[in-house]
Amino acid sequence: MLTELRTRFGADAAVIQDTCDGIPTFWISAGQVPTILRFLKSEASPRFPMLYDLTAIDERVRQDHGDSPSDAFTVVYHLFALEGARELRLKVALPEDVPSVPTATGIWPAANWYEREVWDMFGIRFEGHPNLRRILMPPTWQGHPLRKDHPARATEMGPFSMPEDRHIEEEVALQFRPEEWGMARQSDEADFMFLNIGPQHPGTHGVIRFVLQLDGEEIVDTVPDIGYHHRGAEKMGERQSWHTYIPYTDRVDYLGGVMNNLPYLLAVEQLAGIRVPERAQVIRVMLCELFRISNHLVWYGTYAQDIGQMSPVFYMFNDRERLFGIIEAICGARMHPNWFRIGGVAADLPAGWEKLVRDFLNHMPKVLREYDSMVMGNRILKARTKGIGKYNTEEAVEWGVTGPGLRATGLPWDLRKIRPYSGYEQFEFEVPTAHNGDCYDRGIVRVEEIRQSLRIIRQCLDHMPEGPVKADHPLTTPPPKDGTMHDIETLITHFLSVSWGPVIPAGEASGCVEGTKGLYSYYVTSEKSTIPYRVRIRTASFPAMQFIPPITRGHMIPDLLAIIAATDFVLADIDR
Amino acid sequence: MNPTLQTLAVTLGILFTLLHVAAVLIWVERRLLALLQDRLGPNRAGPLGLFIIVADVIKIFTKEDWIPPFADRPLYVIAPAIILLTALVGFTIVPVGPGMVVLDLNIGILFFLAFSSLGIYSTVLAGWASNSKYALIGGLRMAAQMFSYEVFMGLSLMGVVILAGSLNLSEIVEAQRGMWFVLPQFLGFVIFLLAGLAETHRLPFDLPEAESELVAGFHTEYSSMKFGIFFVGEYIGLTLIAAMIVTLFFGGWLGPAWIPAPLVFCFKTFAFILFFILMRAAIPRPRFDQMLSWGWKYLLPLALINLIATGALVLIRAD
């Protein structure tokens, strides 16, 4: 890859950087960004057709830069090739005074929101971007939050007040002005109606605003306005210890529970060089699949509800309640168990867990058949969802859509199969697909995924290996306690690891999992300290939400709700 | 008994029952839906949770009665009254027992159709007067929905009229002594049922409200008792449609001789109300244009076929 880049763009076009996660990482110059990206997307072998992530790092206070040619800021392009799930990282070093890069929106439309996010968070300009404005923070916000000199705690910012005039100002700033988005207020025949769906609306599943440009009930265009659920999960990573950040990950995709812990821990464990014992891996897989079912049950119910079917959501929440019973018995908590640890899991499975899981496995297939005939087999529901919000595989890849949304277009692409992690290669399961890529097919894929998850859980139940549930490694948390009462050295190490947390070796790594809604990645940078230098969270809902406007054009308001329902997003997951 | 006194007694009796039915339906619907959905529903206040009705009424009366400053005030205030009024007036021609009817009109069915059409003004005006986008879309949907469903609602009843040879509801009930009209007029019954559901704008035809799309549709901006009146109006409308189905297709008050006729009538009507609640629990909402096209493409031709076939059969019999 490096030689290919060098022969094409000159000997000094790319500088390689060693990373412990094995993802090829090259430094390129800002001027060459568009040409190299275009080359990698369409000509290189292998091609990288998906812009997986685009983020930045503020390098100004970093102690240990290693051998990288970094400057004040680094922009990171994370590309993905579906064959073999190969990843590629491109980095661009930018100076402090005028950090700017040419935009990639001409190459990937998906770069639009990512570049807006980097502008919002770091103040890095993307020259030629069609609409470079804040995306997560309020339009009136001062400063760029992920810069290291921006306060991380409310106490550093002085008391907050909202006097009357400021209140009015904020409200005015939130008003939608079609001109800013290049929208006309009327066509030759009609005046358009601009309708706010949200931020508070029963159909949006949380605080998000869709501004619809309507011609009658027909949607001419949609502008999703996100950021109402932004809690600065990435900024918090820069002040929590490696261990105490785990609970924050639980709350990113809050329907995915411990599924969120996994990509973060995969990244940290790579940095620390920890090998997770087999039993811990299988326990992790089982919990992740339980949470996949939990997520899909919530999706299933709300899907029916958004189409106007009142009852299914109650049945599915009942089943989710059964499932939470198991999760509570194992983890002690329900939605946010915060149960995985660096190097393993928090505790061994409780006595009698087999019976709970077995009962659930026996219960589910029966009710799933019932739900099929009630929801997926319903003719009105089919009429509402077939042919709505349709897209093909190329478009999905182009926009960075992964997970069930990608598989519904007919591509059997699942990271658990293509590049297994955490021992998934030992399990037998199918990758469900559908063919039309419409709202109905996305539903069919998820329903089938519930069945496949049940299959994986049954294998966990039948073949749970014996052994420790946490790696024997000094950097695991909580740290190993054997011997602390025998010699002072071990006691001191244990004390420091508990009170300050482990010191993770310098470097960077990203962990990627096939989450409930698609691919999730945590890209962590360490400067050999007790806290991460930077944590980047790549979620599946963010690109899926960005893709909603193109697939709603020409549909009607009820179709927008069907599309929202079939997309299965979580607001915390979009805004982080 | 003095005929005036009797009419007065019947009138008051029906009004009293109706208003109470509307109130009790709050409880019935919530408990029944809960039962169908594996929940408990309101079960805390009083025996079986029945006092929830009182609690609801107190709550709705004490809420702030807010009229949006951007609303068209007179229309905004009148709109909820219309739905209640038309539904109640529509009830005057329904015979609950032999001779027990407020208005024994010769044009009973026409009177019913006229007032059910007038009821639509309520939702349309509410949508318009609220001067809010969601309410407007809801009002427009209601208008379009009713323009298409009114047409064959009337047509679906004409088969019954042909068989009974009268527009008077008491005579129609009497004509069903031999056989309920649901058998010869099954198609008419199904079409009237669907049109009636659309008329009451309840799930699956609740497009003017469509909670997940339009927040609350035409009554988004209504609060307190003005909202409450829409609520009561909807329940009375529901009861009216159920009562009309019973009268026209299920033999009205006719039943076993040992049960008082009004009780038979109430029992049958209640069964249909429960059926409507069941429909609400089970069926998703079609899209607006789908619903209109089903109406025009399938139900209207079917209603016409039903009418022509019934007419032809009656003519052949007469010969």
CATH H-tier superfamily of the largest domain in chain A:
Cytochrome-c3 Hydrogenase, chain B
Number of domains of chain A: 2
CATH architecture of the largest domain in chain A: Orthogonal Bundle
User: Span between N and C termini of chain B?
Assistant: 44 Å
Q: Please indicate the percent range of residues of chain A in DSSP E strands (runs of 2 or more).
A: 5-15%
As residue ranges, the low-confidence spans of chain A are none
Low-confidence stretches of chain B: none
Round the Cα radius of gyration of chain B to an integer and report it. Answer: 20 Å
Q: Which word captures the global form of chain B?
A: globular
Biggest pleated sheet of chain A: 5 strands, mixed
Overall structural domain count of chain B: 1
Number of helices of chain A: 20
Explain what you see:
The complex is a heterodimer of chains A (576) and B (319). Chain A has a five-stranded mixed beta sheet. A three-stranded antiparallel beta sheet of chain A has the order 8-9-10. Chain A folds into two domains: 2-150, Beta Polymerase, domain 2 (2-Layer Sandwich); 238-549, Orthogonal Bundle (Cytochrome-c3 Hydrogenase, chain B), CATH 1.10.645.10. In chain A, a hairpin with a 7-residue loop joins β1 (15-17) and β2 (25-28). Chain A is 38% helix and 15% strand. Chain A is globular. Chain A has 20 helices and 15 strands. The mean pLDDT of chain A is 87. The termini of chain B are far apart. Chain B is globular. By secondary structure, chain B is mainly α. Classes of the chains: A alpha+beta (576), B mainly alpha (319).
